[in-house]
Amino acid sequence: MRILELDAGNSRLKWRLLNGDTVASHGYLANSDNWLQGLPLLMGQVEQVDCARASIVSGRERFELLNAAIDRHFNISLQQASVKPDWRGVRVAYPGIGVDRWLAMLAANHQDRQTDKIVVSCGTAITLDMLNRDGEHLGGYIVPGIGLMKKMLHANTAQLPMVEMAASSVSPGKNSMDCINNGVLAMAAAMVNEQQTTHKDCVVYLTGGDGALLKPYINGECFYHPELVMDGLSFAFEEAVLG
């Protein structure tokens, strides 16, 4: 079976095509004003599929647009995952948690049921969720992502520059650009490291566009899984989790 999986986040639309259990191809579209123009190219790359499923955090309108495009091209309906508070061994701490956070926790818990985990997604926002070895979600944090923090500093101060390049250090900067760049990365790493210190013997699972950037500055055991949300989608997907 050929399955198209979509992860529609705040910054981009990630996709991958599964041929059975094998990832045949993957990519992403930026959530720019003309992202819809890229959908036909995406559809052309994946050719015919038997099933399409999605994690969508960017609103009902995005689902309707994606569903219409998939229906036109493949003559199938897009199936959307929704959070279940107690599912596949994961019990969420509160109602209303984002489906992407839930799927990432499902995937991390599926990979490792022997240790406590910190699941961190580094995108437009940074989300951090603590999950114990019994699958109990202990709560988490939502803070601005690395890029968003830099944009906020530029937009809300008189003279600080907009820093586009990625940081390569958490050392104190010797100019304004490095002070911003390194400082923002240091803040993100410190949040994760603090929780790893508090929750002894836990493992960090990183995902999201800036996850690879953050990984070298995490002190304890840490894994980077760029497709953790879609791994959770594959694991969780059946009739009970459809929206």
UniProtKB/TrEMBL annotation:
Pfam family, one: Pan_kinase
Active-site residues per Swiss-Prot or TrEMBL entry: D100 (proton acceptor)
Positions annotated to bind substrate: Y94, G98, V99, D100, R101, S176
Kinase as UniProt keyword: yes
Cofactor binding, note field: A monovalent cation. Ammonium or potassium.
Residues where ATP binds: D7, A8, G9, N10, S11, R12, L13, K14, T124
Record-level Gene Ontology MF annotations: ATP binding; pantothenate kinase activity
Needed cofactors: K(+); NH4(+)
Keywords: ATP-binding, Coenzyme A biosynthesis, Cytoplasm, Kinase, Nucleotide-binding, Potassium, Transferase
EC top class named in words: transferase
GO biological process: coenzyme A biosynthetic process
EC number assigned by the record: 2.7.1.33
Subcellular location: Cytoplasm
Homology family: Belongs to the type III pantothenate kinase family.
Subunit-level organization: Homodimer.
NCBIfam families xrefs: baf
Function: Catalyzes the phosphorylation of pantothenate (Pan), the first step in CoA biosynthesis.
Name assigned to this protein: Type III pantothenate kinase
